[in-house]
Write a structure and sequence with these properties.
By secondary structure, this protein is α/β, with parallel strands linked by helices. It has two domains: about 140 residues, Response regulator (Rossmann fold); about 90 residues, Winged helix-like DNA-binding domain superfamily/Winged helix DNA-binding domain (Arc Repressor Mutant, subunit A). Helix content is about 55%, strand content about 10%. It has a six-stranded mixed beta sheet, with helices on both faces. α2 packs parallel to α3, α6 packs parallel to α10 and α8 packs across α9.
Length: about 240
């Protein structure tokens, strides 16, 4: 584990990697390049990484799926970070482009995915984009998410009090956007003008705190996973009490 003082004027990042060598390589690479990124701490085990994330509250966490305490501990770390409702945004650094691994990264709460064979500049751009509140996913990765959502997916987005966030018409539009339809296709499907669809989307973006279609798809994907997880836990509790 390594810790340094938070850097002003830089995006502060915590690294969770499989071994110390990988941590050192990323740290030294960013130090040499001066890309406006400061590695404030690093860890190779999930629980230590979680403690550092709570302690430092970094802008961004870069997490490997394989950590020192297990091959998939990075996914668990992502889920735990998300459960904290932390302001830290997360990036998963993958070796494989296997669709299921990509989808699982976003399912667990990642805001971006970068592959190890990509240049350091790509990771740097991803960190800056994610720090600005954007989702880092190219068309191929977005395609994986759309396929995972499925055409039969149903969205019932609610706030912490259980109140519906969207109107029936807005939910219809979100459903179609999540199926990959363009504004024009949505307008045809619902019998609306493209201008009206755009206006609906702007209102939806505002209500959900997103700014692009990609962010909307990821929001719906992650909320759907949370809903499914909640239903699963409810059934388990009911079965235990029966």
């Amino acid at each position: 584990m390594a810790t340094v003082q938070r850097a002003r004027g830089c995006i502060n990042v915590v690294i969770a990697e499989a071994n110390r060598l990988n941590c050192q390589l990323i740290e030294s690479a960013f130090r040499r390049r001066r890309m406006g990124v400061a590695i404030v701490a690093s860890a190779i085990e999930s629980q230590r990484a979680l403690l550092l994330l709570k302690e430092h509250g970094p802008d961004v966490a870069v997490i490997s799926p394989q950590l020192g305490d297990g091959p998939l501990e990075g996914y668990r770390l992502l889920r735990e970070l998300r459960s904290l409702r932390s302001k830290t945004r997360s990036i998963m650094l993958l070796t494989s482009r296997e669709p299921n691994l990509v989808v699982d990264a976003f399912r667990c709460g990642a805001h971006g995915v970068v592959f190890r064979d990509e240049p350091l500049e790509v990771l740097g751009k991803c960190i800056h984009a994610v720090n600005r509140g954007q989702v880092w996913a190219n068309s191929q990765l977005l395609g994986y998410l759309l396929e995972a959502l499925g055409h039969a997916a149903h969205f019932d987005l609610r706030d912490a009090r259980g109140m519906g966030l969207l109107s029936k018409r807005e939910i219809d539009i979100v459903q179609l956007v999540a199926e990959g339809l363009t504004n024009r296709a949505v307008s045809v499907e619902l019998g609306l003008s493209e201008h009206t669809v755009r206006n609906y989307l702007f209102r939806i973006f505002d209500k959900l705190g997103v700014s692009t279609r990609v962010e909307l798809v990821l929001y719906c994907f992650q909320e759907r996973q949370q809903s499914l997880l909640g239903d699963s836990r409810f059934r388990e509790k009911a079965a235990a009490e029966a």
